[in-house]
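Notes from hallway chat w/ T.B., transcribed later so I don't forget. T.B. wanted the structure written out for a chain they're using in a teaching module, and asked if we could keep both sequence and structure tokens in one place. Agreed to drop them here.
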Amino acid sequence: QVQLVESGGGLVQAGGSLRLSCAASGSIFSLQVMGWYRQAPGKQRELVAIITSGGSTNYANSVKGRFTISRDNAKNTVILQMNSLKPEDTAVYYCHALERSVYWGQGTQVTVSS
């Protein structure tokens, strides 16, 4: 089993920045993929950004150029730096990890006011 613990959500004004962090612990063999998804009220959960153990990244078109994902393989952590935040970025952000199974964090609220 792998546990994911997120931190860093909160309330910010449009144009501001937030940094989300997710730490994985437990029976970890190899975290092939780590990343972030988000779910806004009344909407489906959607991919925000993912990063492989080799450093390859994939971003949602809506966040390209504004968000940056990075990871520390030695510490089993993944970071999402979010800049130029918009009200439409408001959602619960979930950490995601693919090891031998798929794991999710408990979610952290990000609210961007206009």
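Follow-up for T.B.: The mean pLDDT is 95. Might be a good example for the class.
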